[in-house]
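pasting for ref
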Amino acid sequence: MRPFRFGAQYTGTTLEDWQNHARKAEDLGFSTLVAQDHFGAQLTPLMSLVSAAAVTTRLRMAAIVLDNDFRHPAVTAKEAATADVLTGGRLELGLGAGWMAADYEKTHIPFDAPGVRYERLRETVKIVKAFFTEETAVTFEGKHYQVTGLDAQPRVVQQPFPPIMIGGRQKRMLSLAAREADIVSISMLDRRTPDGPPVPTFAEKVEWVKAAAGERFGAIEIHAMGGGTVVTDNQWEALEAAAKRLQIPVEDVLKSPANLIGSVDAVVDQLLQWRETCHVSYWVLQARMMDEFAPVIAKLQGK
């Protein structure tokens, strides 16, 4: 089984804050510092990650995930390659089709149908991978993007290229991730409606990934967001609060790997169980949770 690793996701707007959080994450045993890609009160992801790399030595730098509609794939490829060089080969590149409507409303970027955004992302993955691996130049003729003689410079440090993460919640996107990504992020942000069909479980989504990945499944790292994580000795109270917030029965709260709730030992047991049953080994939590989660990381050191 893959060893556990944990990322700390931070949004901030000053150099001092970013670098302080990077140092703290590294000191507490986190493997990755994570930046989002939205038009809110935050720095842009790749530049902020480069600044964090300047004050750390081991911490990996992850963009989870770049919205494909915000940049032409040639720009994404060149900026990602640059970030890999400037972080000394510590970049993890997340690519996504875009999902947050507010980003599109603020910018008037067209929020096209899911199928169109999916098609564009699929072409972007091909262009980015070609940029990372071609010796000289990239030429690509697609439905949505075309590049001709695109100089494949700078050369990435990591070979064959920085790990690529693709995530999603629906079968089509997770199948693309299974075929193309090194890290597959499985989202449970499904829309629940009283009269709608049952929401697929995390385990069912892992099976989608397995089916699409085939023989390469063993090379894929499965990722989950731990946004509902609470480390507490009062587990029942925290479970009730989570159930109320999520509008689900208490007994269903722990059926998602996003909700790691309980004492340090209880959370460790939940992590081990999720890895055993669903192959999840990589979690990302909010940076504000670093202190309370650090004892969990310490318990799982080397496991």
